[in-house]
Amino acid sequence: MKPQLTIIPCASLHPGQLNIYNEIKWDPGKPSQQKQIPGMEDSGPKYQHLLESDRSAKGKVSAIAKRKILRALKYLLLMANEKTIHNIYTGRMFKFKIAFITLTLPSQQIHDDNQIKSELLNQFLIELRKFYKVKNYIWRAEKQKNGNLHFHIIVDKFIPQQELRDRWNRIINKLGYVDRYREAQKEWHKNGFRVRKELLKTWPKEKQLAAYKRGQKINWNSPNTTDIHSVQKIHNVKQYIAKYLTKEEIEKVKNENPTSEIAEQKGRIWSCSSELSNIKGAQMVLDSQITDEIEELIESGEVELIADKYYSIVFFDMALILKKPNSQLYKLFSKFMIEKFDFNIQIEFPFN
Q: Which domains does the chain have, with CATH numbers?
């Protein structure tokens, strides 16, 4: 029997993005083939916390990686509904949505990048999931000017900063980083308080003295290795976070100090929780009703359209779909979010 070519118009819906393409099938006699949108290819099995790699990313984020990071970020932000948090340490109530965490090493890195990621970062992510019920996160590794790795992590759970610091310091001291910090501080201040002149521009003498007194009091057991802040008040949260997750580390260091050199980073330079990895979105075959809804969306004038011979991409404000709970686009995306993330859009976004 001669194989018959069938072209099926399809689409995949993500937060703020609709990809329209043709799926090509031969029936019978040839394996199924599909036109893929560039950058949307299936990159393999789901992420399973394999943090070690022999590859060197050289501090660069590829175009495909940037698209994957931004997609994961869009889903994380969509599901990160605003929460009112009671801080048990201050007794104050405040609004919270997303936390931006930075983790550093307090002494010179002496272990391989892959070992830092597999033994320290991986342990930290495990404890976030276990003790704070963190489901969705994205992390990015960078090299600092001193050659040390540091990590940016985005989560949608509130974690008290002192708890965060204590947890990270305990973990990194598995490889002795707090112990080496303590010995270095004791040696530096062996004859009493001593100013670090090279840091005076960003760390005034009076603040150095206050830090010295705190360090002495606790025997230098709690170095400032963490920073965590809410980005609730930042107008464009996605753009702010995306800048940190997708920037080129070597270019950044060179801009700050043209004469500096930075070693190539080994292993993964970013990843995310398995649920945010390689998301296919709400898949659909374009019937007349869905096609009409897409045309209405485009004709609203509130979208950005990229059209090609083989595919089209529509960028839009997700509220345009969320405020129409009776539309097919809404229903298909809502069903996908429940099945994929156990996230009920109708509860979180009651646009009725």
A: 4-42+280-348 (no CATH), 63-179+221-276 (3.30.70.1910)
